[in-house]
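The material for today's practical consists of a large collection of protein records. A record pairs a protein's sequence with a compact description of its fold. Instead of coordinates, the fold is spelled out as a row of discrete tokens. We will come back to this pairing of sequence and fold again and again. Here is such a record, shown just as it appears in the course material.
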Amino acid sequence: MATKKKFIPVARPYIDSLDKKGVLEVLNSRALSLGPKYKIFEKNIASYCGATYASTVCNGTAGLHLTVCALGLKKGDEVITSPFSFISSSNCLLFEGVKPVFVDIEDVTYNMDPSKIEKAITKRTKAILVVHIFGQTADMAEIMRIAKKHRLSVIEDACESLGARFKGKMAGTIGDVGVYAFYPNKQMTTGEGGIVVTNKRKIHMLCQSMRNQGRNTHGDWLIHERLGYNYRMDEMSASLGVTQLRKLNWMIKKRRKIAEWYKNELANIPQIVTPKIGKQRTHSWFVYVIRVLRGNRNAIIKKLAKKHIQTKPYLPVIHLQKFMRDMFGYKKGNFPVAENITSQTIALPFYVELKKSDVVFICKTLKEILA
């Protein structure tokens, strides 16, 4: 009887007995929403990242939407952002009728290229929405300089980069407001979930109200001061966040070790570009994305799948998604650096419990395919 070959997924959350115990305690308490856990999680995240305030939400997209609303962005406004990102960093603007204005990315870190921002600024530009891609920050010194010069707000989409730093400051805490997300493939997870962090009380109070159907913050359940949404985080997710955060530094350390394994195994292969870390930045490793310079990327992904290795083409550019083309008339060639990179990228399996033998097997298989 043939043995079943091991399947290696592209991502898998790390869940231990303390995580399970915490969630079960919430279930047994029957306080499944608006209990004590979400407040504890908010306090702990704020402390971890060095922010004054934190507001839990049901996912990162909801958090980004709240930041747009809290800054008063509206129809007719423009916000400069990156085309190389998950779709939510643009959708959160479109929800309020705000136009995303893209600028191309750096060839090394795949983050927004600050040298291209000022050319994109118009009289309608109100903010810069910075996406910290794959686990490391954009060049926040230059971006903040530009924002200050032109009096623009700065939103940090740090949904992929909790734990990453720029000049010692945590991603998400450098601009006016930042958002983290906790989908199961992230550095830590709450299942679904996100959190908004800021040092500005007004932004915080608006987010607290709007995530809870626009209720006032005095506990009056049926008094709604403004338009709001049901963006609350449930208590099971918050409990998982509390226990996951306790081991986040350990999990990031493990991810850095796995990234080093990949780097060593893939060294000296001309067809492959491994991730690079920008100056004055630390990396928290959301994913491990390589670029394949020669060969059919999609064919390589299919061949790896036949060997039971799951990979993903991270990330398709936003401006070439069908609805974005239809809305704004974008076409190939608008952002050549992002378009070139998106045609080459492969996210390899990457999670805390990945073994060195798995990495060796993945890289050996990849080398054989490229030979």
